[in-house]
């Protein structure tokens, strides 16, 4: 993982780790529990879509995010603005596990903007339990977390970067649900954003080819190998986001897709 300076700034360039590619690989394969709000919905909000309710309830940076028009589903892929995002966590459930790090990189049409690469280790609440043995997978230690970036700052940065873009992930349920849980905590509303999921795209492609994939067949490193992409060390958030972005471009180059609606779930 990227180490942060004493001044507390996040890094802006991907830096692979040598973390073990073991237990939490299932994060890309297992659907985690859906995040539900425990708040009572005011009567005037019944009948609105989930996104509309979230937009009304949102505060701070999330409210600003919802004021930006979303990308039209008819937008052409050759100029589609995306943000490839990856998170590292202590486990699979946003209800019981914690967000440890996040990374992203912008994709503009068929080009990856390497200069936009972002990585931050997320500061943990006081008296948060040790990450324990999970550090052997994601490479984030308790000492690194102690000097991390406050969650509010990380989410503010993410929501600015996501404005007017589609979120791109490999097995998007992880990012969507952990980030939505975090926005509920800080901004009182869930995160609704257009999503492209390279995991879902590959599964759909394989099924159309008459091949019904097993979980291992859809892991990010294995899918990348099938497209002739280089091997990266796994479980560094920005490196995984970059790996996802490269895979998306390879998938598009080998398809007849032309608009956003063709690549959405």
TrEMBL record:
What InterPro entries does the record tag this protein with?
Ribonucl_H, RNaseH-like_sf, RNaseH_sf
Instruction: Give the record's keywords alphabetically.
Output: Exonuclease, Hydrolase, Nuclease, Nucleotidyltransferase, Transferase
GO cellular component annotations, sorted alphabetically?
Answer: cytosol
Per UniProt, what is one GO molecular function of this protein? DNA-directed DNA polymerase activity
Q: Which EC class, in a word? A: transferase
Q: What are the EC numbers? A: 2.7.7.7
Q: Which domain of life is it from?
A: Bacteria
Question: Where is the region Disordered?
Answer: 1-20
Tell me where in this chain the Exonuclease domain is found: 81-257
A Pfam short name = RNase_T
Under the heading PANTHER family, the entry gives: DNA POLYMERASE III SUBUNIT EPSILON, PROTEIN NEN2
Protein's recorded name: DNA polymerase III PolC-type
**What is this organism's lineage?**
Bacteria, Bacillati, Actinomycetota, Actinomycetes, Mycobacteriales
Q: Corresponding gene? A: polC1
